[in-house]
Every structure is written in C-alpha cells, then in structure tokens.
Amino acid sequence: MKIAIQGELGSNSHMAALAMLEAAGGMASGELEIAACALSAEVFERVVAGEVDGAVLPIENSLHGSVAEHYDLLLAQPVRIAQESLLRVRHNLIARPGVKLADVRRAMSHPVALSQCRRWFVEHPEIEAVNYYDTAGSVKHLMASRAGDLAGIAPELAARHYGGEVLVAGIEDHVENYTRFHFLVRESGWQAAAGANKASLAFIVLHRPGTLVLALQEFARAGVNLTKIESRPVPGMPWEYVFFVDLRFESSNQMDAALAGLQRHCEMVKELGRYVAA
C-alpha cells in the first residue's frame, strides 16, 4: 500500500500514517510505502491521479489550530476523508551520534515546532532557534552537514530513520499537544466507513438574513452534534466564505436528514467524509 504524506520521512505525518494504517488493517510497517511530498498540493494531486492509494495529512493541532491550506484543498479536490486519528506530538532535540548537549549552539526545526518549545529555549539561551521547512527534514539536513554544533527538533522516528541520537526527549512546552490527521482517498469508489459516527461538511449559505442560523438549526433538528465550525474565504470571491463543520451522529439517517435540511439554506454543500471518530 502506497501512502503520500507532506514532508520528509520520519515526520509526525509519517508516524501518523504508520499508526493509523497498522491499527486499521493490521499491516506491518514493511507493507506500507510512504511517498514523501514537498508540497501539500502535490499530495492531493497524487491521490487524485491514482499514483498512491491514499494520503495522511494533518488537519488540526490542539495548540496551533487548523491547517488552513488543507481545508482549502479538501474543498477544491475530489477526495474524501476515510479515517481520522490523533497523534500525541513530542518534540525531541536530536543531533549526530557523539555530539553532546554542551556542544549545541543551533537547533533547527519547523517554525510551529520551535514555537511549541519556547520554554526550553528560554532555559537554554546559548542555543539559537533556526527556522527550517520541516521537522524531520532538519534531522536529515544535520546528518548530511556533519556540523558538530547543530541539532534538530523532530519526532523520535526521525532519529531512527536518519541515524541521529536523541539528546533531550520531550522538550515541548505542553504535554497535552495533539495533532488530528485525516486519511484521504479518491472520491470515486469512496463509501462511508462501517460504524461511522462523525462527518465533515463544507457549505456556502444563501445570501438572505439569518441564513447561517437557519442552516445550523438543521443540525439540531436532525439530532446531530456540531463539534467544530471553521470559515475560510472563497478563492476569487472577495468577502464570500465557506463554512467547514464536523458533526457527531448516532445513525446515518440523522446525517441524511441534516444534509437534506441544509440544502434548503445553501448554494453549495459538499460532504467531505463519514468516518469513525478518533
């Protein structure tokens, strides 16, 4: 099975893909081929083109918030959400074998990871935080550079994959740091997961006073529980917005009723997926 991720091998997305698909299908890690992509748009393109069986992408972090680009791509591309998972995020200081903490003067990582380790950098003012495009990519880079004063901040998997060594584990500010991932598949051939109890939708309401309120009331009328709402601008249409919502439900009939009611108040409704809540 070939799965696309955004970022380098050894990243949190790589870890999430292994955990999600091994748990779902009982696969061993050797049965999964991970296709690392530089850009999220490339990940979607490979799914749509059938070059991969699916993709695992982050949609939301409990501290940093939503990944806006991925919401936009979900709306624009013919893909569906087949599964979701939660990954506990741990940031580790990783260096070349033999390098000591006292040797480190620069620590590289993605800006979001660096921002989640502010307290550690305050406690170590001699170490400069350096922005890099990817967490696991920082470890890949330092292993190739052979610099003795350089470290990366990344998942433990990156150290194992590239041959680095964890100098300090768990340097994140908050222990309760989770990222929610979606497993995406091509729209053609998709069907709701067995036992699905959660759905994601996107919709644009009609331009009438109170339409958003009326649209949201349809969820309550159908007995489904709104767990998240997010708005994003519509490309090419200034001051127009699309709403993304997550819903919990007990039966498919509830969701069907909610969708039917929603259609009365919207110019566009897209079901992004029905799946089992993580």
Explain the overall architecture:
By secondary structure, the protein is of the alpha/beta class. The longest helix is centred in the first third of the chain and has 14 residues, at 12-25. The protein has 9 helices and 15 strands. Helix 6 (135-145) runs parallel beside helix 7 (156-162). The mean pLDDT is 94. It is elongated. Strands 1, 2, 3, 4, 5 and 11 form a 6-stranded mixed β-sheet that branches. Strands 8-7-9-6-10 form a 5-stranded mixed β-sheet. A 4-stranded antiparallel β-sheet has the order 13-14-12-15, with helices on both faces.
Q: How is this structure best summarized?
A:
This protein is an alpha/beta fold. The protein has helices spanning 12-25, 40-49, 68-76, 111-115, 118-123, 135-145, 156-162, 211-222, 252-263; strands at residues 2-6, 33-37, 54-61, 65-66, 79-88, 92-95, 106-109, 128-131, 150-154, 165-168, 178-186, 198-205, 225-234, 237-248, 266-275. The strands form three sheets. Strands 1, 2, 3, 4, 5 and 11 form a six-stranded mixed sheet that branches. It has a five-stranded mixed sheet with strand order 8-7-9-6-10. A four-stranded antiparallel sheet has the order 13-14-12-15, sandwiched between helices.
Secondary-structure map:
Blueprint: E1 2-6, H1 12-25, E2 33-37, H2 40-49, E3 54-61, E4 65-66, H3 68-76, E5 79-88, E6 92-95, E7 106-109, H4 111-115, H5 118-123, E8 128-131, H6 135-145, E9 150-154, H7 156-162, E10 165-168, E11 178-186, E12 198-205, H8 211-222, E13 225-234, E14 237-248, H9 252-263, E15 266-275
Parallel strand pairs: 1-2, 1-3, 7-8, 7-9
Antiparallel strand pairs: 3-4, 3-11, 5-11, 6-9, 6-10, 12-14, 12-15, 13-14
